[in-house]
Amino acid sequence: MPGPEQPDRDTQPAIARANWFSDLQLTRRGLIVKKTGRRIGLAEITPMEFIKFCLYFAVVIVKGLYVRMMRPSHLAVWFAPDRPRPWYILWSAMTLSGVRFARTPDEANVAFYFEDTTQGDPPLAGKLVQFNAACNDISKSRVTDLFADVSGYALRLDPETHQGQAVEKSEANGLHDGRIVQCPCMPAPGKSYQRLIDSSDGTTAFDYRTTIIGRAPRFVLVKTKPASNRFSMHNDTVVYRQLEEVFTSAEIDIITRFAEAMVLDWAALDVLRDAESGRIYIVDVNKTDTGPAVDLSWGDRGKVMRAISTHFLTMVTSAAQPSMTGTAPQAARSAREPLRSGYPIETPRQV
Q1: Counting Cβ atoms within 10 Å, is residue 312 exposed (0-12), middle (13-18) or buried (19+)?
Q2: Beta strand pairing status for 191-195 and 179-183?
Q3: How far apart are CA 351 and CA 271, in angstroms?
Q4: What is the pLDDT of residues 114-156, one digit of tens each?
Q5: Which residues, in sequence order, are CB contacts of 22 under 8 Å at separation 6+?
Q6: CA-CA distance, 216 to 312, in Å (whole number)?
């Protein structure tokens, strides 16, 4: 007996669910994100952090309603296979820019591949420009290999031949399971091994969360935490900084060309600066970043909201123009830029 007829993805694209809570499962140990299996408990978010997020969420809702009434964009984006929920920064960018969520590609001006997974298969979007569709692998190994191509120096290492300490972390995105190991050692299945980048001043570790919109870096969130607890999800401080306050022109060029090589229309990069050499290293890519960080001041949250809404609206508006749609322009958007290596290392910025 033949099985049930499968839908034709060309003619019957999936409709992302609108019910926020359908993504979550309540357990005794906290909430579970069904798709990724990620747990959201007290270890991941404290009650105070949850309260701060709720306040931020309320502000975004009010600002979004004002924009819809006073400055409507008349643009719509179709997200597939999933629709970003309020805990993703992309949801804030949509709300604050006045762009609508489209239920189907026919209602949309552009499409967006959104899936909280390390590797995925973007659904077809017809003739619509589809953001992030050409980046369907953000595993640690791919990130480190492309970074080496762009920067001219390596982050990835062989744990069986390396002498000294290294960082072991899962290839999968968002697990926050990094730990320091002593090499040489046997590689564990599903793990990636990187140089140990000492991004601290001996006491405080610094992490430069850099937001990519339209394949270019836009701003930096400088995060600090104790050097002894550098892999923790919780930060001591988070502040908003312009790119030029943190990176040199050569470093901004490295980050930009990395975004082009990864074909990133929207993402957040984790960038570390090695205290000994002064070099920057892109250690992680997150296309479905959450936040913004609850430890930001309200003034800095306002700067983040203005930046993401402005750059996101510009990106969507440009792609929605008639000259930007169709097969040829979409292929051009997916084409990778030629890479070059051997960047000069300028004096690093002091933050």
Answers
A1: buried
A2: unpaired
A3: 14
A4: 998 888 889 988 899 999 999 989 998 999 999 999 999 999 9
A5: none
A6: 11
CA distance 118 to 35: 11
pTM score of the predicted model: 0.82
Tell which phi-psi region holds residue 257, choosing left (phi > 0), alpha (psi between -120 and 50) or beta.
Answer: alpha
> For residue 52, what is the enclosing H or E element?
helix 47-70
Q: How far apart are CA 289 and CA 284, in angstroms?
A: 11
CB 195 within 8 A of CB 155: yes
292 prior amide bond cis, ω within 30: yes
| Tokens standing for residue 36 | 């990724």
Distances (CA, A) of 214 to 182, 263, 267: 39, 9, 9
Angstrom CA distances, 179 to 169, 229, 232, 273, 280, stand at 7, 10, 10, 18, 20
Q: Report which of 12, 16, 215 is spatially closest to residue 113, judged by C-alpha positions.
A: 16
For the stretch 213-241, pLDDT in tens is: 999 999 999 999 988 887 777 788 999 99
- Say if CB 223 and CB 205 are below 8 A apart: no
Which residue's structure tokens are 């120096």? 153
Amino acid 169 reads K
At residue 205's C-alpha, the angle toward residues 158 and 244, to 5°, is 95
CA distance 349 to 329: 38
| Distance spanning both ends of the chain, measured CA to CA | 67
Residues β-bridged to residue 208: 222, 271
Q: In the chain, at which residue ranges do the beta strands (DSSP E only) sit?
A: 24-27, 30-33, 39-40, 76-81, 100-102, 110-114, 130-131, 164-170, 179-183, 191-195, 204-213, 217-226, 237-241, 266-273, 280-286
